[in-house]
Design goal:
The protein is an alpha/beta fold and 428 residues long. It has helices at residues 5-12, 14-20, 40-45, 79-97, 115-128, 181-188, 194-209, 228-239, 284-289, 328-334, 352-359, 361-377, 386-399, 401-409, 420-427, and strands spanning 24-29, 32-38, 57-60, 63-68, 73-77, 103-104, 142-145, 148-151, 156-158, 217-222, 244-246, 266-269, 293-297, 303-307, 311-316, 335-340. The strands form five sheets. It has a five-stranded parallel beta sheet. A three-stranded mixed beta sheet has the order 1-2-6.
Length: 428
């Protein structure tokens, strides 16, 4: 009968029953039934793709993720929430199968709903729903927006689906016809040159995609009040804080820092100090952006693998120097430099970022998408003109100042010597 708990569960999860057998150990006492035990694997598999294909739970990179049909992505969920989902299956079964008190289904809402019973089932969920570390892998075929999935090959907006296997979405809608005159003409136009705006547009195209296809690091330099902070505020708000993590070079060699980047697409260092790229961990940025496999540590001492396809942007009011470590060519390939060098506007609008986000959010996203298409059309290669190349080389030369001084100003002579004071005077 439909009110029999075994029948109810088998009808609701037929594929799980086929693989893992009957869900409950039932004993009949007269005309009534009593539940003596439960099949842990059955209830664990109910949460997997086998049991709930439209909203599965997966376990990867040391964490649970639950697909949300409302947002279109796999959202991180804590272990206690998995316990709750298992308990809800039991409770729904009990409510449907009470049969006016004829069936004793109370164990499903009391004895088997205790933490001591649910925790082992949660462990089985992790085992049955476990996926490789690259389950949410590099995928440049779509972008998920608030109003659907934009398939990049056809440029069509389609419905959400777990088949896209993504943890990331843009929390704003996409509209291919939207404009952003205030953002383009005022926020950018009054602070940057045309070639700089195009460079930023291409970089933002990668940020929108969520994959650093060009393997670049953007340095945004300039004095306070020039507009770089407002630009970053607008772009980061559109990308969504759930997709962003603070870049902290002083912690990059610590055990848990890399694992904190799982599920993120953009790492930002905002208003950093001049020595930000001189710290020991700064060299890891090359791996974070160059497609390398990095190992991170999670709870219980487990290790996970994360691919270094992150977009990285670093802003500063000072000129940054880089710890080159005899690897200037690698940094030369990585760096893009955006200098905010124009004079400050006489009438700055403190509400400019808010106005753009309220009125032009979809337009800015469209502008970013055009940047992605430009970059894709050039096989994701970013070419720099003479000025942009000089801006980048200025950073590299400043970082190589001691080596350049020794090469260009010192002459080796047998028996000769010099002092630090003499060198300082000569360098001045």
């Amino acid at each position: 009968q439909d009110t029999h708990p075994v029948v109810w569960l088998m009808k609701k999860y037929p594929k799980v029953r086929e693989k893992y057998g009957e869900p409950l150990d039932i004993r009949k006492e007269g005309n009534n039934i009593k539940i003596k035990a439960i099949n842990d694997e059955f209830f664990a598999a109910c949460l997997s793709e086998l049991g709930t294909p439209d909203a599965p739970v997966v376990f990867t990179q040391g964490a649970f993720y639950h697909y949300s049909a409302e947002t279109g992505i796999f959202e991180p969920t804590k272990g206690r929430n998995v316990d709750t989902m298992i308990g809800e299956i039991m409770r729904d079964c009990a409510n449907a199968c009470d049969n006016g008190g004829m069936n004793d289904v109370s164990p499903l809402t009391f004895r088997f709903a205790k933490k001591s019973t649910l925790s082992p089932i949660r462990d089985r969920v992790a085992a049955l729903a476990e996926q490789p570390d690259d389950y949410f892998g590099e995928n440049s075929e779509f972008i998920i927006f608030e109003n659907g999935v934009l398939e990049l090959e056809t440029e069509k907006l389609v419905d959400f689906s777990p088949k896209y296997r993504s943890r990331n979405r843009i929390p704003f809608p996409f509209d291919a016809k939207a404009k952003c005159d205030l953002f383009h003409n005022k926020l950018l136009g009054e602070a940057l040159e045309k070639d700089q705006i195009e460079l930023l547009q291409k970089f933002c195209g990668m940020v929108l995609l969520g994959i650093n296809k060009a393997e670049k690091v953007l340095l945004i330099l300039g004095t306070a009040g020039g507009g770089k902070s407002k630009m970053l505020e607008v772009i980061s708000t559109l990308i969504g804080q759930n997709n962003i993590r603070e870049l902290r070079t002083q912690h990059l060699q610590k055990q848990f820092e890399i694992s904190a980047y799982r599920g993120k697409t953009w790492l930002i260092g905002s208003d950093v100090k001049p020595d930000f790229l001189m710290r020991d961990g700064a060299s890891t940025i090359k791996s974070l952006t160059g497609g390398d496999i990095l190992t991170g540590e999670v709870k219980n001492g487990e290790h996970i693998n994360i691919k270094g396809i992150f977009n990285v942007a670093i802003s500063s009011n000072s000129i940054l120097t880089v710890h080159l470590e005899q690897d200037s060519k690698a940094w030369e390939r990585r760096l893009l430099v955006l200098k905010y060098a124009k004079p400050k506007t006489n009438n700055p609008d403190p509400e400019l970022a808010r106005k753009i986000l309220e009125n032009e959010a979809t337009g800015v996203l469209c502008w970013m998408y055009e940047g992605y298409k430009k970059l894709r059309g050039n096989n994701f290669k970013i070419s720099l003109n003479e000025k942009l190349t000089r801006d980048r080389d200025d950073i590299l030369h400043a970082s190589s100042a001691p080596e350049l001084f020794a090469r260009d100003r010192l002459v080796e002579k047998s028996g000769a010597s010099t002092t630090k004071e003499a060198v300082n005077k000569l360098s001045d």
